[in-house]
Recover the amino acids of this structure.
């Protein structure tokens, strides 16, 4: 039996930091309101000339270094993103050539904030099938480009960044299970209601920004993430106490806290980066994972639960032995 395991991780955040105090100057909000409702204190924002691929490249190079692999070792490139550089080629193809990787499969995955969980699930299946041995899996976003900076109900929530993992074939797990779900009937609760197929005029003249029914998204996220915890434990015949670390999507500390309570997980075993990163969509889970690996909290052999929820709705989890 072939398994896949995370061999190395990397993360990258743009230099520019926008604090809640900065936002108080541009929209009718307060640091207190943002912290109370979301836990967010600040977020990183890409420079004007920085694209998603620029962010992805930095994170990918760090992941490859930590996994001790070269461009020649990589035989699959997957980027999860909602904010690609171009309509085509895919951001994965752009990244591939930046890294001097040639010929292997490279494609983008669009599952919004669950994107990295989807991409890891896909990489795991490619590797388990025996066709591929070493995948570069990236979550990268320049969400600041699709945020309406005049809308206080959304602009305080999001940030830019990239996280990456090198996933290699192994004799034992590694990734123990992945659980991917979606239900498009919730398409309008969290959306950017524009796209190239509706015509460029619409993008240029109307809203091409994030629109969200925050309350409804909040309730769905809490309920859905509670269910995915049960599903993941049951599939692996594990107890809550078997999980060493929860690495959740970083949208909101109240949603993270609810999932932690469901797992009976003390908060010092939950990786929380939302205060400093905001919600970086597909980048949030790999960024959080990388932070906790690099600062020495997560150690080899520990059991990690990654879980995400996002527009679609999409949701999913990955259980793995690091
Ligand atoms: N600053 C100050 N006041 C704000 C504000 C801001 N940035 N944004 C909204 N408000 C106001 C609203 O206008 C509303 O005012 P009103 O009562 O006079 O109408 C009030 O605060 C309460 O708004 P509400 O939307 O009910 O707040 P909430 O407690 O639901 O918190 C969110 C809003 C967005 C923080 C919360 O709904 C949430 O976190 N939802 C999930 C979002 C998410 O995670 N999305 C991504 C999933 S991947």
């Amino acid at each position: 039996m072939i398994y896949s395991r995370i061999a190395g991780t990397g993360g990258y955040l743009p230099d520019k930091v926008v604090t809640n105090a900065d936002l108080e100057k541009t929209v009718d909000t307060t640091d207190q309101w943002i912290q109370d409702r979301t836990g967010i204190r600040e977020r990183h924002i890409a420079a004007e000339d920085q694209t998603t691929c620029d962010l992805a490249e930095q994170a990918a190079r760090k992941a490859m270094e930590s996994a001790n692999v070269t461009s020649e070792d990589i035989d699959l490139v997957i980027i999860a993103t909602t904010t690609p550089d171009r309509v085509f080629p895919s951001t994965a193809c752009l990244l591939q050539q930046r890294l001097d990787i040639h010929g292997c499969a490279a494609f983008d995955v669009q599952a919004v904030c669950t994107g990295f969980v989807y991409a890891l699930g896909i990489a795991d299946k490619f590797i388990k099938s025996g066709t591929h041995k070493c995948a570069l899996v990236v979550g990268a976003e320049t969400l600041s480009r699709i945020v309406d900076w005049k809308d206080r109900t959304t602009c305080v929530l999001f940030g830019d960044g990239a996280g990456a993992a090198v996933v290699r074939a192994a004799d034992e797990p590694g990734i123990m299970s992945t659980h991917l779900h979606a239900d498009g009937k919730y398409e309008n609760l969290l959306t950017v209601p524009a796209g190239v197929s509706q015509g460029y005029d619409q993008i240029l003249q109307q809203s091409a920004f994030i629109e969200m029914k925050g309350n409804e998204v909040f309730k769905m996220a809490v309920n859905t993430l509670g269910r995915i915890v049960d599903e993941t434990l049951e599939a692996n015949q594990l107890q809550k106490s078997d999980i060493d670390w929860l690495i959740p999507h970083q949208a909101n500390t109240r949603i993270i806290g609810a999932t932690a309570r469901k797992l009976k997980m003390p908060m010092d075993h939950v990786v929380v980066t939302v205060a400093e990163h905001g919600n970086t969509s597909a980048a949030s889970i790999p960024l959080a994972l990388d932070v906790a690996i690099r600062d020495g909290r997560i150690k080899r052999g520990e059991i990690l639960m990654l879980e995400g929820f996002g527009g679609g709705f999409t949701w999913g989890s990955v259980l793995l032995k690091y």
Remarks:
- The chain has two domains: 3-171, 177-321.
- The longest helix spans residues 214-235.
